[in-house]
Specification:
The chain is an alpha/beta fold. It is built from 23 helices and 22 strands.
């Protein structure tokens, strides 16, 4: 795009857009408004950046967030002055907490029109508090070469800070004086003959996160009389916790965790919001039922670990968190960012590295030092290179539990021989609890919430992106999502755990992506129905699986449910919405699911375009009672 020399504002805005295009920006989401007109025109004229207009600022910001989640690249977000900027706040908080790169450009009145009731002018400087990685107010636009150099390099720095050292939001407040539209200014037009774009943008090239941003392993992993890794290898009662994660390269991420697990012969307790459960073939020691296992207090005591490697955020499970808090294992947290990932304040050491980097260092260290160590609940511990076996070693001499065969969508993992009884107990219990869950849920014929996530984990087309709403859906996924080899890609807003922008974020994930799924309750969808306004600009397909229990199902699981009034009116907050009529308003396809065969048929092959809602009408109280009656029983008699 040539620089627009019609006036000072057009030069300024077009240099900003062009610089971002050179850096690798592919998408800009723009909300309507007058003060931001120079930016809107500049981005709309840049043919290499997809520019998407969205009416509602909150929806727009979460849509941008979803696009950035999918791509791991910064997405630009633009609005006019005034309260428009305030509506970006929830998405900026989520971007900060979930480490997603966003570039926020808020147009503003110039200094002389602030604090004087000029209209649509509020204090926008540092409006987002401490949530941006970096924030600044740009100078008043100027067409001089020195000021354009300043603008270019400030945009380069903003891009870098949205990615390094930890991805997150960056905010630039941009004041504009009139004229806001591209009326010609002869003095500025004359500057075009002196401007050499090749020289001006020379040396700019795309800047991406990823491998280059992964720090080397901390020194204490490598040095000393006995390295941390050698201590890990000596420990036969260790666990790996694969927490909530939405990595850009899921298979590489899961392979690294599998390599760490196999090197140490430790089980992997994998959250349902981690891709690890969807790459089961990679990991022979995958544990998906840990929340249910730990409800058996006797088993939980036997499974007390000495060391835990926590990868990223902790899983959602309160049972797991309480168990870790009670048992206080020495915990190592693996994540390259600067965030604190320990809400339990335990005996933790943050290792600022990636699982991929850790797996490489661990493999190198253990290759050089292959000890044979006394360990487990009894017996000697073999080296990490134990030969592959077709069976899980029996708990008793007469007992043998074969590993289920591994097919696409099936259970099981790489068939190996665990080398200690601690790992053996985890794996044997996982198989028994998983079998109990499967038998119990497969026999349910009526529409019930827990069966939705259990079934989705087995029937979605391979590689399907799925956005999982907060509150009850994320918990049912953790309880019931079955390990598979479908390479399903989970997405979610678990940074701040709010229900803001659920639909808009899901649409952002699905935009120009493989046909996608959103799993949500009724309140989360109703909180963001303005997201349906994105429909006309949305490219791709999103199927919304709507669990309509007419209220907040998660509150039925909490002690406050026993106090009614005020429970039903102030906590459950039923809305009595006819979703068929709501969908008709936005011209969105809607269908009520009557049985599980219909459900499977609708998801066997997803459409290529459009938005549709598949509504499952459930009984909020009955489903809560089912969970309360059954969650503690799956591992009861083991």
């Amino acid at each position: 795009m040539p620089i627009d020399f019609r006036n000072t504002n057009t030069v300024w805005a077009s240099v900003l857009a062009e610089t971002l295009q050179w850096l690798g920006l592919t998408t800009a989401v723009i909300c309507p408004g007058s003060r931001s007109a120079p930016l809107t025109i500049a981005f709309a004229q840049n043919k290499k950046i997809e520019t998407i207009p969205i009416l509602d600022e909150r929806s727009a910001s979460f849509f941008a967030l979803g696009i950035a989640k999918k791509s791991s690249l910064p997405t630009a977000l633009i609005c006019t002055s005034g309260t428009a900027a305030a509506n970006f706040y929830p998405a900026i908080i989520e971007a900060r907490e979930s480490r997603i790169p966003l570039l926020i450009f808020t147009a503003d009145r110039p200094p002389e029109l602030r604090d004087c009731h000029a209209g649509q002018a509020i204090d926008q400087v540092k409006i987002y508090g401490n949530y941006p990685n970096w924030q600044a107010e740009l100078a008043i636009p100027s067409a001089s070469r020195g000021m354009l150099d300043y603008l270019r390099q400030t945009i380069v720095y903003a891009w870098e800070r949205s990615i390094f050292p930890t991805p997150g939001p960056v905010h630039l407040n941009i004041p504009f004086r009139d004229p806001l539209v591209p009326v010609p200014d002869i003095a500025v037009e004359a500057l075009e003959t002196e401007f050499n774009p090749e020289d001006f943008f020379a040396g700019l090239e795309p800047i991406f996160g990823g491998e280059s941003s992964t720090p080397p392993s901390p020194p204490f992993l490598r040095g000393g009389e006995e390295s941390t890794m050698q201590q890990w290898q000596k420990c036969s009662k260790g666990i790996i916790i694969a927490g909530v994660a939405q990595p850009q390269f899921a298979e590489k991420y899961c392979s690294a965790i599998a390599q760490i697990s196999k090197s140490l012969n430790w089980p992997v307790l994998a959250e349902g919001l981690s891709p690890v459960r969807n790459y089961a073939q990679l990991n022979p020691h995958l544990i998906s039922t840990y929340d249910l296992i730990l409800r058996n207090r006797e088993l939980a005591d036997k499974l007390t670990p000495e060391i835990a490697i926590q990868i990223g955020d902790l899983p959602t499970s309160k049972e797991l968190r309480n168990w870790l808090d009670k048992t206080q294992p020495k915990r190592y947290i693996i994540d390259p960012s600067h965030h604190n990932f320990d809400p339990l304040h335990g005996k933790t050491i943050h290792l600022r590295t990636s699982p991929e980097n850790l797996a490489t260092n661990l493999a190198t260290t253990l290759t050089l030092v292959p000890p044979l160590i006394k360990g487990g609940l009894g017996g000697d511990r073999a080296p990490a290179t134990t030969a592959i076996s077709p069976q899980i070693p029996p708990l008793n001499k007469d007992e043998s539990t074969p590993v289920p065969p591994l097919n696409k969508g099936g259970l099981g993992g790489v068939q190996t021989s665990p080398s200690n009884e601690y790992l053996q107990l985890w794996r044997h219990t996982e198989i028994q609890v998983r079998e109990t869950i499967d038998q119990k849920i497969s026999a349910i014929n009526n529409i019930i919430e827990p069966k939705v996530s259990w079934l989705l984990s087995q029937i979605l087309p391979p590689g399907t992106p799925i956005f999982i709403a907060n509150s009850m859906p994320v918990r049912d996924v953790e309880f019931f999502w079955k390990p598979n080899n479908l390479e399903i890609k989970p997405f979610f807003n678990r940074g701040a755990n709010g229900i803001d922008g659920t639909l808009s974020t899901a649409l952002g994930v699905a935009h120009r992506n493989q046909s996608s799924i959103m799993l949500t309750g009724d309140l989360a969808l109703l909180h963001d129905t303005n997201g349906f306004l994105i429909k006309n600009k949305f490219v791709g397909h999103l199927t919304i699986i709507l669990i309509n229990n007419n209220g907040g199902g998660i509150f039925e699981m909490l002690p406050v449910a026993k106090f009614d009034p005020p429970f039903e009116e102030f906590f459950a907050t039923p809305q009595q919405i006819n979703f068929a009529q709501l969908c008709a308003t936005y011209r969105v396809e809607h269908e009520v699911i009557e049985d599980w065969e219909q459900f499977k048929e609708k998801l066997n092959l997803l459409p290529n375009s459009g938005i549709r809602v598949l509504e499952l009408q459930t009984d909020r109280r009955a489903d809560a009672k089912w969970r309360q009656d059954n969650l503690g029983k799956f591992a009861k008699n083991l």
